[in-house]
Amino acid sequence: MTTTQPSVQLVSDLVNHIPEFRAAFDTHVFNQGGVLPHVFFWDVVQDTVRSFLGESPDTADWRRTLDFLEEQCGRGVLGIDEVIVTSFLNDLPYPDEPGHAITLQLGPVMAARFERIRPGG
């Protein structure tokens, strides 16, 4: 019996919970030959910020994505936290970039982790 890594399970759960990520996931798996959570989350960040800015109405609503990730981050599972912190929070726009205000919308768990990795925003 194989056990799915928590980071791969996170990607699977995200796509199942927010189906708007399915096309990006399918393209990712085809191009990468499997699931690479840190790489996939680059697309998640880009789509989430585009949604926040109102630039792409066909992407997942940014609030649903933040809510899902907040819940997952609150579980305290090492592989999950690593992906969310390293490849989502750390890749959010910086203060001089469009969409930076999304960082003010983070839930308490992600906001604390964001403050720890990027104290200046």
Mean of residue pLDDT values = 95
The Rg value, from CA coordinates, equals 14 Å
- How many domains? The number is 1
Give the number of helices: 6
How can the largest sheet be summarized? none
Number of strands: 0
Quaternary structure annotation: single chain
Structure explained in plain terms:
By secondary structure, this protein is mostly helical. The chain has one domain. It contains six helices and no strands. The protein has helices at about 5-15, 20-30, 35-55, 60-75, 80-85, 110-115. Helix 1 crosses helix 5.
Features:
single chain; 121 residues; 6 helices
Write the layout of secondary structure elements.
Layout: H1 6-17, H2 22-32, H3 37-53, H4 62-73, H5 78-87, H6 108-117
Helix pairs in contact: 1-3, 1-5, 3-4, 3-5
Short description:
The chain has 121 residues and is mainly α. It contains six helices and no strands. It has helices at residues 6-17, 22-32, 37-53, 62-73, 78-87, 108-117.
